[in-house]
Amino acid sequence: MKKSSLVVAAFLLLLTMSSALRSETREQWIELGARVHGAFGAFIPVGIRIGLDAREKLKADPRGLVVTFYSGEQPPCPCVADGVMIATQAGPGQGTLRIAAEKAPPGAMSVIIIQIRKTGEGRKKRLYYNTLPSIRAVTSQS
Fold first, then answer.
1. Which of 9, 51, 97, 133 falls between 20 and 30 A from 139, CA-CA?
2. CA within 13 Å, CB half, 68
3. What is the biggest distance separating any 2 CA atoms in the chain, rounded to whole angstroms?
4. What is residue 42's three-state secondary structure?
């Protein structure tokens, strides 16, 4: 297994097992993801994990973050954005979730920049197409 596959697997395992980082149950995340996205696919939990991680690392209040999402050239890019939106409580109606017109760099499924609204301090996460099989394998087992 490649290093990137191991990282993705560990990342997704934390999402499904870590209750200390969130108050919602696994079932509540799934229900919310399905309502927001239309179905709960393999990439919603990836976005939720990215959003929760940013909130924790930045010590941000809910709705205190601004998200800029750069989508790749192929699907399933926007699925991740819905998960980030759920976890950060950022949204287009508040002006705190922006889907950039520019695309992510070649090979990148998405680039997500999450910043504290008031200070601009932030984190950047890149997801690459070569990790898709690992993500699908791990999330299908959850």
1. 97
2. 13
3. 41
4. coil
Q: How far apart are CA 85 and CA 83, in angstroms?
A: 5
What the block records as the tokens of 122 is: 């932030």
CATH (domain of 55): 3.30.1330
Q: Over the stretch 104-127, which tens digit does the pLDDT of each residue have?
A: 999 999 999 999 999 999 999 999
Strands 122-128 and 108-116: antiparallel
The parent domain of residue 121 ranges over: 3-141
Angle (deg, nearest 10), helices 77-88 and 26-37: 120
Domain count for the chain, please give it.
1
Q: Which of 49, 36, 37, 41 is nearest to 8 (CA)?
A: 49
CA distances to 10, 33, 115, 127 from 18, in Å: 12, 17, 23, 21
3-state secondary structure of 18: coil
Q: How far apart are CA 51 and CA 78, in angstroms?
A: 14
